[in-house]
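The freezer alarm interrupted the setup, so I double-checked each line after restarting. Inputs confirmed:
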Amino acid sequence: MTENTPPITITKSKFIAGCQCLKRLYLVVHEPQRGTGKTAADFVLMNQGREVGRLAQQLFPGGVSVRTGNPEEAVRLTRELLANPGIPAVFEGAFEHDRVLVRVDVLQRRKEDQWRLVEVKSASDLKEQHLEDVAFQSYVLSRSGVKLASVWLAHINREYVLTGTTVDPRQFFLFRNLTRRAQNLQPELTFRLRSQFRVLAMPKAPDLPTGPHCVNPVTCEFLNLCNPPIPNDHIGYIPRLNASAMEQLEEMGVKSSRVTPNHRSPIRTNAQSTGSVGNLFSER
Ligand code: SF4
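Predicted 3D structure, all chains:
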């Protein structure tokens, strides 16, 4: 980072990426071009999420949306809307604290200058990452001076059956009160954000192992980068090559079984040097 580079901000999506894997967070921020990018299915899901979000807004009549993508402008507009007692709810409000930025689906005005936070998900149940999501939002809002009366998740009611021609949002959503659980996660969030900023300041991505977390809760966009596909000429495909021979070849830096006119076969070279083909290949 140079002197003129703006400081890195952690948004909700980056934070969630970092909760899955710190290497993923690093790559998302510094080397996004190495990932697979968004698929058509991702765009469908994003559109679906927006539709569900708009439907949820019908439950808060008189609510006003913050319609700018510019973060500073969005924070300023949000502050103005919150200060206006005539506004019962704010959609997509933006808050920033200490280089951490969030946008909140719904903030509903309650008594005594308090607010109800509602995160809307186009999922049919509560998942672990939803908790991290709302806890992260509460963390930023409470540090931005917003008094939160409660924290809720609105998700799709899988029992809902469409009876007319329009969807009834009161039946379509189920609300879960996550206030206490979001509160319990606050100390852990401080720790996680500290590690995330530390990793983002590193000169290169941390060397972390792959594992089940690479496909859970979502398939990481850097899966191919961390698990490059094995080429067809890889020594692992040589028939009857035993494990110790493979190890020897790997130690010699031999990865390909291909023989070029200028090179002798690595298999033969190794066999000649050890004097035994039988050492290389499993007995049948
Ligand atoms: S593929 Fe796995 S290890 Fe690699 S960045 Fe993604 S989650 Fe992390």
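Quick read of the result. Residues 40-57 form the longest helix (18 residues).
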